[in-house]
Specification:
The chain is an alpha+beta fold. It has nine helices and six strands; from the N terminus they run ααααααβαββαβββα. The chain is globular and about 55 Å long.
């Protein structure tokens, strides 16, 4: 049994000098590309450094959202010791690049929505922390008074739901947190260039789900 302690998870959003609007302004010019390559070792057998850690480090140091290529290049360079030590084959690296490129839009979507909530929900404290995400399975924590809401963000697809289920089994829940699943549907969501983002519709759904806990 464990309880969430806000002091253990510093809020990275406070140190990212971007708004949801400036994120939209920059990414609307970005193009996305994807490869059909799916290397089974890359997908299931090799434990790579976490993508989210490098993604947020890039934003913190560069004060911008990276493009797909910038993110992949930074991921490899910021984990150079890992890749040098293992000396992966070209096939593995090609498969890794394809996986990183596929993951990238969800990372952008999550930080945009976190910043949207951070900018608009003035009566709430909105937290993103990589340890909270990676180790505890909470993509964004929302706090109001003594109520904690742990939100899980994912696309409404079979593959994403399967990944979400695996992620949820890697940790035990906090006893004092209300957990909320918030899938995004590609029909009717906010479109920004090549990106599908969470918008006003999903924020309304989230607030309604949060209110439902107070009615129980």
């Amino acid at each position: 049994m464990k309880s969430f302690d806000v002091e253990k998870f510093p809020n990275l959003l406070d140190n990212i000098n971007l708004t949801h609007e400036t994120i939209e302004e920059s990414i609307k010019e970005y193009s996305l590309e994807f490869s059909s390559v799916r290397n089974q070792q890359v997908e299931w057998k090799i434990s790579f450094p976490m993508f989210a850690t490098s993604f947020y480090k890039y934003i913190f140091f560069n004060h911008k959202i990276p493009t797909q290529k910038e993110f992949y290049d930074y991921y490899v360079s910021s984990n150079q010791e890992f890749f040098t030590t293992r000396n992966f084959s070209e096939d593995i690296m090609v498969g890794l690049k394809a996986r990183v490129y596929r993951t990238y839009p969800s990372l952008v979507r999550d930080i945009h929505f976190s910043k949207t909530l951070h900018d608009k929900l003035k009566d709430y404290k909105v937290i993103y922390n990589t340890k909270l995400d990676i180790n505890e399975g909470i993509d964004v924590m929302i706090i109001k008074e003594d109520e904690y809401y742990g939100v899980n963000l994912f696309t409404n697809t079979t593959r994403a739901k399967s990944s979400r289920d695996k992620k949820s089994k890697r940790h035990s829940n906090f006893t004092n947190v209300n957990y909320i699943d918030l899938p995004v549907n590609f029909n009717g969501s906010l479109k920004c260039g090549d990106f599908f983002l969470y918008g006003e519709e999903e924020m309304t759904q989230l607030l309604n789900k949060m209110k439902s806990f107070s009615l129980i």
